[in-house]
Amino acid sequence: MLESNPSPGPEPDRAGPEKPRLERQRILQAGVDFIEQHGARQLTMRRLGSALGVEAMSLYRYVPSRESLLDGIVETVIDELYGDPEVYVEPRHGWQDYLLRLAHGLRRLALKHPQVFPLVATRPTEAPWVRPPLRSLRWVESFLAALTSSGFSDRAAVATYRAFSSFLLGHLLLEVAALGADVGPVEEADPHPPASADLDGYPLLQQLQDLLSEDRSAQEFEESLENLMDRLEALAP
Amino acid sequence: MLESNPSPGPEPDRAGPEKPRLERQRILQAGVDFIEQHGARQLTMRRLGSALGVEAMSLYRYVPSRESLLDGIVETVIDELYGDPEVYVEPRHGWQDYLLRLAHGLRRLALKHPQVFPLVATRPTEAPWVRPPLRSLRWVESFLAALTSSGFSDRAAVATYRAFSSFLLGHLLLEVAALGADVGPVEEADPHPPASADLDGYPLLQQLQDLLSEDRSAQEFEESLENLMDRLEALAP
DNA sequence: ACCTGAACACCGTTCAAGT
DNA sequence: ACCTGAACACCGTTCAAGT
């Protein structure tokens, strides 16, 4: 689907400060930066061009359309996962360790790219069973390999994959949304500023507002992840 | 935030086939229908106008901008929850029953509006602690009231609210995405059709493709919901 | 080989003008 | 009171033309 993936073998060309695909990668990186600064809604071929010191039309030599530019931006961000030394493509200390590292790596990615993450979560995927946020064939293969090689049945591995992606998607999308990131398309100078809502008529909301506003996302992530792991133990061999 | 909510008291003016706010509501309903048919990306002031037999400029008498039109469309859809006879605003048979009914009602809503649901999931909310998919002050108030009136502490009620929304968001967003709905912005005639991906080099994906493509969303929803309920029992009084 | 100017068909939005 | 025509500043995208 992504025309940027000519060699789909499981061995990644690791993302990093090298510069292969010289121009395309520069454009995609500029796209990531632009979105992180101004939000996805602001990203325009013309504006990205001018951020690169070039006319919009030049981008079409490297990217067939704005849509595929966004796909490439998403891909660029998830490819960072390969650069995370804490995340293993091959399990080293069992499947629990593998899953915990992967979950934390994806959370770091989401928090590093709060404006891009909603795109990671919501762009159409390569195949219907590629479930965000783990949206790459390579990672899905890695995931399933880690589980089946630990003795999970095929069914159990797939069930684990689904439970894991649901959990991560819900948590991370809500966490970046709470970061003040506009989730999904983003406005710059917001026409309807998120002024603290009018709570007249909602006594409980008034009473619980402080509790509701507390940021417990890190703890909740850990607790829910632990709970998920407990649940998954039941599927383990 | 939504200019369509002049009386924010907890008593809803129930959604239904009546026609209060005559014109605005007609526009929003047309917007819902349009998105469900063509996807949110296709929704244009001009096109929606012509679907209503009117010029785009006329819409601005009822809706201040395209952004707020989208907000209104999302609101229209979640307001349908009030019309669901299986969902109670006030708990009648305890908090477990309340939560189960609410969860199933939201799932029905997502499946009824697979193209709108990604907007429900990703549009900026009225306040940072309003967490999709339960994106209305009225419902958050209802939720917290149901729990505290069942004896939950304030903290436990808030923790439950958070766990519940994460769970629903992850599950439902992935479920509508799998429905073939493009999640988030949508393309009509897709330039990169979701042709079945090239699985060369991914032996496990090939081997598990049938399992991966099986639709088990209903069962998984029930199982995960049950697990969540078990977890929440620990917070109950 | 790479970039651009001009052009096309479309946007959202404003506002004076029509009825 | 409600709708519209014309206009403005912007889009994505194509393509022949420049260097």
TrEMBL record, chains A, B:
<dbReference type="InterPro" id="IPR001647">
    <property type="entry name" value="HTH_TetR"/>
</dbReference>
<keyword id="KW-0804">Transcription</keyword>
<dbReference type="InterPro" id="IPR036271">
    <property type="entry name" value="Tet_transcr_reg_TetR-rel_C_sf"/>
</dbReference>
<dbReference type="InterPro" id="IPR009057">
    <property type="entry name" value="Homeodomain-like_sf"/>
</dbReference>
<dbReference type="Pfam" id="PF02909">
    <property type="entry name" value="TetR_C_1"/>
</dbReference>
<protein>
    <submittedName>
        <fullName>TetR/AcrR family transcriptional regulator C-terminal domain-containing protein</fullName>
    </submittedName>
</protein>
<dbReference type="InterPro" id="IPR004111">
    <property type="entry name" value="Repressor_TetR_C"/>
</dbReference>
<feature type="domain" description="HTH tetR-type">
    <location>
        <begin position="21"/>
        <end position="81"/>
    </location>
</feature>
<feature type="region of interest" description="Disordered">
    <location>
        <begin position="1"/>
        <end position="21"/>
    </location>
</feature>
<feature type="compositionally biased region" description="Basic and acidic residues">
    <location>
        <begin position="11"/>
        <end position="21"/>
    </location>
</feature>
<feature type="DNA-binding region" description="H-T-H motif">
    <location>
        <begin position="44"/>
        <end position="63"/>
    </location>
</feature>
<keyword id="KW-0238">DNA-binding</keyword>
<dbReference type="Pfam" id="PF00440">
    <property type="entry name" value="TetR_N"/>
</dbReference>
<dbReference type="InterPro" id="IPR050109">
    <property type="entry name" value="HTH-type_TetR-like_transc_reg"/>
</dbReference>
<keyword id="KW-0805">Transcription regulation</keyword>
